[in-house]
Amino acid sequence: MAEHSHIAWTDDTWNPWRGCTKVSPGCANCYAEKLVTGKMRGQWGAGAPRIRSKTTFEDPLKWNKRPVICDACGSPTDSTGDCDCGAIGATGTGIHRRRVFSLSLGDWLDSEVPIEWLADMLDVIRRCSNLDFLLLTKRPELWNDRLTELQDTFPRSATIPMETVDWVNAWQDNRPPANVWVGVSVENQAMADFRIPQLLRIRAAVRFLSVEPLLESVDLNLFFYP
Predict the structure, then answer these.
(1) pTM for the predicted model, two decimal places
(2) Residue 157: CB partners within 8 Å, gap ≥ 6?
(3) Angle formed at CA 8 by CA 7 and CA 13, multiple of 5 degrees
(4) Average pLDDT of the chain?
(5) pLDDT tens digits, one per residue of 56-79
(6) Integer CA distances (angstroms), 134 to 14, 33, 46, 68, 80, in order
(7) Distance of alpha carbon 137 from its chain centroid, rounded?
(8) H or E segment at 36?
(9) Which DSSP helix (H) or strand (E) runs through 61?
(10) Cα–Cα distance measured from residue 192 to residue 222, given in angstroms and rounded to the nearest whole number
(11) What pLDDT is stored for residue 91 in this prediction?
């Protein structure tokens, strides 16, 4: 979890929970596993309990109030885009919507995560319409199943607002949220061939690929020039 992330393609990282299970060759030397089982003294793998964040689950609600990033200095500012560094704000160039990578210590479509946690996570995202959330997964084939499971959960929940229920239902009905980017990890040709078609089945404002670690050359021509 980090405001002002060092990851080049995002501004912040958000981990509403931590923990995961290895599912493909790109997981072999997982930095998140080493961090969670080492410094964080947690567990990893199938059957290991995922740990929900106690203090930072709703941090994006604070970031949503300063949703513009100054490209000159990297600082967040309010929606006007005027920055303390003196760079020209909304009247010029050099600003972008704040991007939040979720999750760096797990997978948002991990089926071992309690479905109620996913509901709470999506509720936060729905409430933070000023931010762009980059949801990366190695399990795109589970997207429809997890959202269907969410729909089964909603009638039993006393905490999820109806606005979030409608938001999730609209997404599954091919009306994706404007502030959600969906991406998949592609570390070799086999994973590209499997995950990219699954990604293309998910309606999203933006779709993206993460090629870290890139274990071999990957030919993407099939997906762009069929």
Answers:
(1) 0.92
(2) 116, 119
(3) 35
(4) 91
(5) 999 999 999 999 998 888 889 887
(6) 10, 20, 25, 16, 23
(7) 8
(8) helix 31-37
(9) helix 59-63
(10) 10
(11) 47
